[in-house]
Amino acid sequence: MAGNQRERILTALAGAVSENGYANTSVDSIIKLAGVSRRTFYEHHSSKEDAFLAAFDSAVGRITAEVVRAYSGHDDFVEAARAGLECCLRVLAEDPAVARMVIVEVLSAGPEALQRRREVLSALTDRIVQASQGLPETPIGPELTAETIVGAVLQVIYNRVSRGEADRLPDLLPDLLYNVLVPFLGHKRAADERAKTLPKSVS
Q: Which residues form the HTH tetR-type domain (predicted)?
């Protein structure tokens, strides 16, 4: 029962924050959506910020686990990048409220939320650097290249989610894949891989 109540609170928080923004979301609105008492809320969380951090950690943990499963099945850098990126875009598109919480509203949720966001981005950067180490050629400054890729992809996702277009994120896969690959593989190979990722109806 307690676990179910906690999940209801976290789900309600994501919905409330997505609808109203973090700053305009109150504990009252969360407990109303969750269908729990104020006492129950405070048995699980000390504040709205504490609940947000728990919801952020839960959502990011779930998304990360799915993405890791997707790319871990591929030894090839290109196929791993394609699978991981496809999974990330799809999972975010499947739950626009969670996407808005972890991509947009985290920026308004206080210094601890920003720190956890930085840690997530740093981990993504490290994974790209590690995955690219076996390539025949790597760019000068692979760490900065990977950091730039992560930042650029995140900004593109942020722009779509903030406009209420999370459901369209999977459409970005071919072009985002090209931009992820081109610093490591060059234009021709990245363009070829982009073409393979286009929907069959697109020439």
A: 3-63
Structural tokens at position 128: 């790209």
Quickly count helices (H) and strands (E) in the chain: 10, 0
Instruction: Write out pLDDT tens, residues 188-200.
Output: 999 999 999 998 7
Fill in the amino acid letter for 24: N
As for how many domains the chain has, the answer is 1
- The model's confidence at residue 203, banded by pLDDT at 50, 70 and 90, is very low
pLDDT of residue 2: 60
Kindly state whether residue 46 falls inside one of the protein's structural domains.
no
50-69 pLDDT, tens digit each: 999 999 999 999 999 999 99
Q: At 125, which CATH number? A: 1.10.357
